[in-house]
């Protein structure tokens, strides 16, 4: 919520820019495009009641419009400008007084003394704003003192300076300062509005604003209490000390010297919320923590290879390790059979003994494949019939037709599957029959049976099976996993810091030492395994095949390699523009804090977030982020020694921990009342501003450059 | 477009005698593979089988045994080739099923 107490809506003096003229439509449209919620119309030596009413009606409740005037004042032969602003409830009366004072002069010729201003307007309890120093034409300190001396409402005299930084400097020196747009051109207003002062407390009326100027405690408390609060009791220390705090859904600052227990209080707050099921943890930062957060050592790395199109090859690796050579049929078996002529006449008639056994592979494989297909179809039918949303997606008739088709398909596959099953069983029975009859004839006639196979098929299928398994393993070993980049944060001109997770499968060629085994399997066996797989693949159809498989099985710790996962290597590192980068402590803190505040949580607990950070970063990035969180009602607890945070966030709640020779004590207050009150003795109060300046690092500067609290660098 | 159907090639098999030993010779294009009919040499037979699988990867084939007669080794060879042919066909089907055939050049 921004405030602008110096706005022109018309060209009244001949020297005024014509671009100060604005109609109700543009006035409304421009203001509602900004965050400005309070505007005082202060034209030169003129108050147009009709325009004021028209504009107020136009903006309705969206913006508060306060009536005012910018007067040419003459005091001790010095001309200066003095703004008078009154409550909207007194606009009619204000209009009358202005008419009387201005009388038949023109804005160009009008001039008034300080005494006459006070006499004319003081009864309306206005706010006086004088041009000051570089804000020309300015009133001298003596003239301003004259206003103080004559007015009944001394807390309402403000000095208008040129910008936020000047305002901050004057405030630090005890001047009540403010600044407004002093608009020249309505086309520029939206852009200029970004630099206007921001009100930390939501001011609902002119009267409330005036009470805040007077630091009226009940008004401050009324506004503060509109924020949600929560009172909690914690036991932060080893002894039984119980501290009771009322926290705001806003910024709650803990400050005080080192060793006053602020961290313990934060930890107790985190525990309190965590015990109540609310996510809360104390944020602290260092470069080590950045490395831990991004698991730079890869200790917690988990990967599902299937998601990267890579198989685990569990069965293939096991089968390969257990594979054995198949024997072939000796030629002597044929010689033995054909050397002895079969004389038994009955045996000669049994032709089945001479039949060639059938190949069973094809039917068995087809049975297995059709079973697999049928399972998928059945699963799909289950999905279609059980998924209610699917039924909603298609028309009932389409749904029925679809199910009917699926039923037909399923039945056909089922029939085929059974056919393959029976055929494979028939093949096996037939082969067994031949074998049995041959063996029986051999036994009865004492003649060796005819071999049923050369052994080629069994031998070749064994090699094919080994080749398949080895190829699958090898194809997966040489698969590439894309580098997984994770954005850590923006390091400004240096670029975007990324944490790259580079996972590779040891294919026998990875020799870089900075890769680490994901599974814990030693890197040497990983390398030997992959090289051995390659050797096996090269010798599938050579005499050396089983020698190579034996080599595989003799690798040390081979029993630990059961899947491709055991071959994984990982390297994680921070990079900027693909080049390795080691963030400094400050950068680490910056990124961690930024990321912490980017998380969507209800409670943020930050322990000395300023550690290793530059003032500019705190002021320009972190403080606005904290304030944004506060604006949407998040609870923020910050322990800090830094005035940029403790002062510039203008916290709803400042908790000061003090340690003197006797004991520890706790004071609670806020910058609006400028008081900190001992929670155990309400009569013991100290000055918030003075305490902050004395206790916090950069305290004086923070007050001195308080302009930054308005977001103006 | 579907894959080109490969036609079964027929190669010649014959018995060769060297001194007292007889061999079943399997002629494959420029190579010829030998299996001893008179001595058991499983290692040698396995080497021949390895070569047969390599050839099968280029396409299906069978052997035609040409020797006539009533000799013991002719009987053995006829039976051996009959069985081998059936097994070659089965193994080719397996190679094809598992995409282990060599790519067409």
Describe the structure concisely.
The complex is a heterodimer of chains A (713) and B (105). Chain A has 713 residues and is of the alpha/beta class. Chain A is 42% helix and 18% strand.
State the strand order across the main sheet of chain A.
Answer: 11-17-18-10-19-20-21-22
Mean pLDDT across the residues of chain B is 89
Give me the oligomer status: heterodimer
Helix content of chain B: 25-40%
Count of separate structural domains of chain B: 1
Largest interface, with counts of residues having CB < 8 Å to the other chain, equals: A-B, 33 and 38 residues
Look at the structure and give the mean pLDDT of chain A: 88
**In terms of per-residue confidence, which ranges of chain A show pLDDT below 50 for 5 or more consecutive residues?**
705-713
Please give the radius of gyration of chain B in angstroms. Answer: 15 Å
From the helix content, strand content and strand pairing of chain B, which structural class follows?
Answer: alpha+beta
CATH topology of the largest domain in chain A: TIM Barrel
What's the tally of helices of chain A? 25
- Any idea what the CATH superfamily of the largest domain in chain A is called? Metal-dependent hydrolases
